[in-house]
Amino acid sequence: MGTESGAIERLAGGSAAPRQERRLVREAQQGSATAMASLYSAHWRSAYRAAYLVIHDPAAAEDVAQDAFLAAVDALDRFDRRRPFGPWLHRIVVNRALDWARREALRRRVAREESVFEPLPPPQEIGGEMIAALKELPAEQRAVVVLRHLFEYTPGEIAEMLELPRGTVNSRLRRGLDRLREAAKTELGTEVGR
Amino acid sequence: MRNDPLGEALREVSLPVPAEAESRGLAVVEAAYAEGRKARRVAERRPALPRLAVALALAALLAALLLSPAGAAVRDWVGEVVDSEAPRPEPGLAEIPGGGRLLVESAAGPWVVQPDGSRRLLGTYEEASWSPRGLFVAVAADRTLSAVEPDGTPHWSLTAAARVRNPRWSPSGYRIAYRSGPALRVVAGDGTGDHSINPKTAPVAPAWSPFGTPELAYVNAEGQLRIAVSEKSASRSGAPPDEAGAVAGPDVRQIEWGAGGRLILEVAHRELHLQTMHLSKLEGRSEFGRRTRLEVPDGATVVDAALSPGGRVAAALTFWRHSGTHSSVVVFGPQGRKPRRLLSVPGSLGEVAWSPDGRRLLVAWPGADQWLFLPVGRGEGRAVADISTVFAPGHRAASFPRVEGWCCPR
């Protein structure tokens, strides 16, 4: 198992060549396998990272990312290419990651088993403590934190993506950040974003 | 967001990645993409095929109806034939015609489908049933009964002694009936007060009284339709609660208690019955009245049936063999009168569900990999194609999903 770091695409904010992305989507819709592969390569890392940060299981995160791309392929003909591809994919990824986390939570509760999450990498680097603290949050709070701070979606956009009231998004975000604040102070000597 | 240390940490921290995960996923996605393009090219080359095939099949079917003894039985049976051609299929599920939300059981588990066609997998459950207003879903998996929200959020679970089947939420929302092995049990909507109603019942889903009372219709081990009072307090000293009469219903495999409270629809292999019910105001419970057999032609099999939301009109799917296999969608008027055939198709149909407003039927057509949305009155029907892949994206040999319920709009 390797590691993946940095190089996260900033497509959520539309800053990474939206024109080029629209062209790729159009060509993929018209049957270009090369364009489809380019879209995959441009977005796989961010999809995997989001899935992992919600469910903290490498194998499951791989499955979720792959499943999200398959869903995107399935619905590609109906995709409105005037809209950015990234948020559409992120919505699928985070919702599927939440599905997985809920299934796992239910299965563990029923089976009375211990956590099946694989251990995180040791927190000897910047972000390690933060990620460990993130793992301790409920999956619903993790998803909101990831969408807000990894992809920089607004609470209103997150509410739409997760089909939640905006107030619920805000409260989950606030509770999650409260619990992350201690980890942030310890590691970075500063406060986490609000 | 500038100066966001949390965002930086989330973006920069090294994560464990399974070896070759990205390339492995790319191979799968490329294969699915190529397969999808191939299927589209085939569909584009044969745009008229479904229409032509259905027209030819209907012509053959009509000949069979008019010329054969079995066909004559069907012809005599159906008073007013308003057969129409199967609608031209639309690719993919872009919306639910008529609105509302669907609960769909696939090999992967139950899905909630929103009016815009977006869908969410609830989990790896084997069965699912809407709560009366669609705020919750009762789900079963092996020996576990759970209540979850339509977004998958779990609320509670209980573990039964045997495999849980046929969960049914009462119209009041206060109770859930389910079968655990052969036993019929009831639990409160918050997961408390689980208790037995009858230790030995037939493998038929129970049906709640539509009045919101704790009355529950079920089929006992002898194949008889019975009404039980499900209140725990009604069961003294652990004895089964009192039962309000019984009537024979051989071979019954499905029952529905109509919303008006006056009819129970009994579905058997080759028979349909409407059981009239009377509410005894003094006793505060329902009693059996007259039982009417609905006309089904000799030799035809009843595949599925459902009462309309108003509880007076029944829709049934029938199947028969003559020069091939054929199926019909038939709607019976009040008291089972005036059967009217909406559609006949080659092959077999799956199940039928009424829209919440009672204006449409959703008919599953596994052989054509389609859902048919048929207006009961005037209007154009619609068909949605590729249903199996909608609920199993990326799977080549996906099984056809089952419609568990069409619920109220949110």
In short:
The complex is a heterodimer of chains A (194) and B (410). Chain A is mostly helical and 194 residues long.
What does the model show?
The complex is a heterodimer of chains A (194) and B (410). Chain A has helices at residues 18-29, 33-55, 58-75, 85-111, 128-135, 139-150, 155-162, 166-188; one strand spanning 2-4. Chain A is mainly alpha-helical. Chain A has two domains: 18-118, Rna Polymerase Sigma Factor, Chain: A, CATH 1.10.1740; 119-194, Arc Repressor Mutant, subunit A (Orthogonal Bundle), CATH 1.10.10. The two termini of chain A are 34 Å apart. Chain A is 68% helix and 2% strand. The model of chain A is unreliable at 4-16, 111-126 and 188-194 (pLDDT under 50). In chain A, helix 2 packs across helix 4 (85-111). Chain A is globular and about 50 Å long. Chain A has eight helices and one strand, in the order E-H-H-H-H-H-H-H-H. By secondary structure, chain B is of the alpha+beta class. Chain B has one domain: 7 Propeller (Methylamine Dehydrogenase, Chain H). Helices cover 16% and strands 41% of the residues of chain B. Chain B is built from five helices and 31 strands. In chain B, helix 3 (49-67) packs across helix 4 (69-77). Mean pLDDT of chain B is 81; it is low at 46-82 and 233-241. The interface between A and B is large, with 70 and 53 residues.
